[in-house]
Amino acid sequence: MQDSDTSPGTAHQQQTIREAGPDDFQVVMQLLEDAFRESRYTHLAMAKVRLSKLVKSLLRPPPSQRIFLALNDGVPVGLIGGTVSPYIFADALTATVQQIYLRPEARASRLALDMIEAFAAWAKAQGALEVTVHMTGGPDADRVGTFLSRHGFTHTGGNFFRTL
């Protein structure tokens, strides 16, 4: 668990990052629904039954996957989740952030960085050599890319899609 001091826009708030567990099911589902509503996928119907099965499995994780929650004064405002797995071409491990989300009111804080650092520390403890943040786009893609670059991430490619 990590605690942060206050940042601009978060005066007097205790900010905490902690691992999510089975008791956090409803919180994680709500945060993922919030993330979905801000994504480029809103034209699709959200598959809540399938998502709930996935979330339940992630909250009772094997050692290779984790979800962390970000809290302001004990109130969940964000999450980060991902996996550690072998590279397909080497006998080494890599970590992938598959979902990161902060509610708008928490975005002017250190919580995004603290979530990434918590995930990276967990991944390193699992033996991962690097962390990749998977980003499929959204309204803040350029800003997120700039943020990641400022914090030591290297842009190594991109995601492209074509509607069929």
Task: Describe this protein's structure.
With 164 residues, this protein is an alpha+beta fold. It has a single domain (2-150), classed as Aminopeptidase, CATH 3.40.630.30. The protein is 30% helix and 27% strand. The protein contains four helices and six strands. The protein has helices spanning 25-37, 48-58, 111-125, 141-150; strands spanning 2-4, 15-19, 65-72, 75-86, 93-102, 128-133. The chain has a six-stranded mixed beta sheet, sandwiched between helices. The longest helix is centred in the last third of the chain and has 15 residues, at 111-125. It is globular and about 40 Å long. The chain starts with a strand and ends in a 14-residue tail after the last helix.
Task: Give the neighbour order of strands across the main sheet.
Answer: 1-2-3-4-5-6
Based on helices, strands and strand pairing, what is the structural class?
Answer: alpha+beta
**What amount of the residues lies in strands?**
25-35%
Please count the beta strands (DSSP E, at least 2 residues each): 6
Q: What portion of residues is helical?
A: 25-40%
In the CATH scheme, the class would be: Alpha Beta
Order of helices and strands: EEHHEEEHEH
Task: Choose one word for the global shape.
Answer: globular
| Largest pleated sheet | 6 strands, mixed
Mean pLDDT: 87
Radius of gyration: 16 Å
Low-confidence stretches: 4-8
CATH superfamily: Gcn5-related N-acetyltransferase (GNAT)
Number of domains: 1
Q: Do you know the CATH architecture?
A: 3-Layer(aba) Sandwich
End-to-end C-alpha gap: 43 Å
